[in-house]
Write a structure and sequence with these properties.
mainly beta, 57% strand
Amino acid sequence: VQLQACGGGLVQAGGSLRLSCTASGSVFSIYSMGWYRQAPGKQRELVADITSGGMTNYLDSVKGRYTISRDNAKKTVYLQMNNLKPEDTAVYYCKMWRWGFGPFWGQGTQVTVSS
């Protein structure tokens, strides 16, 4: 399994970005998918995840601003990030897993929010 993440960049506070993570080499629909982030000097934390059935879960600080979604036909998970804040600055990673398999990680994409 390989995961390719993209969509990061530099944006001003209040702006938006959409991250994408595309999987190859596996049956995508049966896996849970998640987005994590890691800021300098901090531990990696779960931002949002979505199960194979479409149930979602969010970090409290991003609720109402971020939306995770998936397109199984495209083997892609998305993270729509709105009203970005400087504290959202981090490297964002996608993760793919299911019971007994994985987790598999993408390479990370940098998100930088300027004040």
